[in-house]
Amino acid sequence: MLFSVSSGRRFIFMKYYYFLLIYLFCTSCHKPGQQSSSLSGNKFNDATLRAIYTAQDEWQTSTLLPYLSHTDARYRQEAAQAFASVQDSQAIAPLTSLLTDPEPNVRRAAAYALGQTGKHAVEETLLAAIEKEPAVAVKAELLEALGKCATQKGLEALVKFDFSDPIVQAGQAWGIYRTHSRQLQYETAIPKVVSLLSTPNPETRLAASHFLARTSKLDLTPHTAAILTAVQIDPTPEVRMAAALALSKAKSVNLLEELAGIIETEPDYRVRLNALRAFNNLEWLQVKPIVWRALSDKNINVALTAAELISTKATPEAAPELLQKAEQTLRWRVRANLLATAMKLHPDKKQVLSSIQERYQQTNNVYEKAALLSAAAKDIAGANLVEQEIIAAQIPVIRTYGIEALAQLRSEKTFPAKQKKHFASLFQRVISSGDIAAVGITAGVLRQPELNFKAEYADIRFLKEALNKLVLPRDNEAYQEISKTVAYLEGKPEPAAPQNPFSHAIDWTLVQSIPADQKVSIQTTRGELVLQLFVEQAPGTVANFVQLAHTGFFNNKNFHRVVPNFVIQGGDPRGDGWGGTDYAIRSEFANLRYREGFVGMASAGKDTESCQWFITHSPTPHLDGRYSIFAKVVKGLEVLPLLEVGDKIMEVKIL
């Protein structure tokens, strides 16, 4: 039907007026206890929810348990979800009873929490619940939870199930994936998982490809063709990249040629990168031309992966060419890696060391200086330079990298015997300095049995004195390392990790002021990232991040860690990965998955989070349920692969 412009305008006006009336009617009829994010910020205007999350934050199992039988299903669901973070065995029985709750969301939360326990004891309970569960989303959750708790029996059950529903099938695939860290027998699982690579549901294929990529000691040679097909034609790059990594477990005469083709033609850098990593089982002379070319890949992460591969596969004959390649590249991380390999393989150590020293003097980039010290320490010939620099260093990054490099050098089987006493003395001095990184790194070396430091130290008072100077929760990681070392040198059992004291309550006034869709701008030297905070899933973590951002804590900090196709990490006041605040916050394990651009908290174990956070380059399911997720990148994903070690976080601004 045709109408005039003026009548069209009236029609549009009336349409929007009509929608406005509906909106006002719906909001005026909002049920008590429900929250509307657009009008009231977030769900924590509800006092009962604040009480549940406070009990979670303070590990108050006795306070949480009654909520599991609350008449309001939403509170039962939230209390069950809370036990996914608290992980108290006392909750297993009441959580089990919730698997028959009339509300699907409650059953799903209970299934997730039971899976988070990782206990074999719940395997039979989960198997029984799977058979009876009518809701597909809940059944999928039960299947994944079973994988987290499975014995061989649970794995075999997961493999035998035959589901047609795509959601349930994805749950089954993730369940099989979750068994990968339990060191089971996977002969019957492999064919099932390979068959799932060709299902229509991308979520199922993603889980299947990650199982093949991340499960150790698999022989995937019989399935090379199917996995290669997934790498070449799957429409989802996240599936292609995981399948490419799985090819490292296959041996085939045609594999080299196929992988080379992928590296040359694949548009997604993460797939090219993992295809390079799949060269692990191939000989250096076979892969050398391809790896040399990859050093010039337009993406720094691919080039860096090529340099790392060279360090594991190159032979001494390649040393002169390595030195030449190092001089030609303009990328300092690639150059430092090549120099490290040259230092290890080149017959003329002085020549390589001279090149390292020249670069060291020329650069003002502290991270490049640190990487060059690591390169120098690949041979005892460079140890003097490294020792001099760590003693003179005023910057934690240089000192930490140098100590780490010397610790690694001392761990080498070829370490010269005449240097052992000197290194024992050096390690004693750096531990006595009280520097948290020096203590943490060096203490770990001292308890390696094959290095026999028991014979070097008749008196270990210096270790106990260093231990007594550490402060919890700030120094938890170093505290764990040196506690274990003292026990080892005294011939005592390894102590349990210290439990961080409760030291940072959630600021609920701040939390209530944060909208459910709150955005944050992170200005970096490579461009802007915009995050959306998950305040309703991780209120304590989000409040901590916002508090620090308001004070300018993150401004002018560096991204101190970048692992290709894994994470970029920042927020450390020291800039070397060992810094933190004087308090720790609790882990918050909402039922979320790490995908590309998700933001999580770095930690030294459960409930040790502080101020360091990371952003993922791609799906990293091995981090799910172990590291708090509190945000995702909603703008600037193209910036992530550009960020390098040393790039600055210029400003973090709450929008």
TrEMBL record:
EC number: 5.2.1.8
Record-linked InterPro entries: ARM-like, ARM-type_fold, Cyclophilin-like_dom_sf, Cyclophilin-type_PPIase_dom, Cyclophilin_A-like, PBS_lyase_HEAT
Keywords in alphabetical order: Isomerase, Rotamase
SMART domains xref list: EZ_HEAT
Top-rank taxon, per record: Bacteria
Pfam families, per the entry: HEAT_2, Pro_isomerase
PROSITE patterns in the record: CSA_PPIASE_2
Domain PPIase cyclophilin-type, chain residue ranges per copy: 527-644
Nucleus listed as a keyword: no
GO MF entries: peptidyl-prolyl cis-trans isomerase activity
Name recorded for this polypeptide: peptidylprolyl isomerase
Species annotation: Adhaeribacter arboris
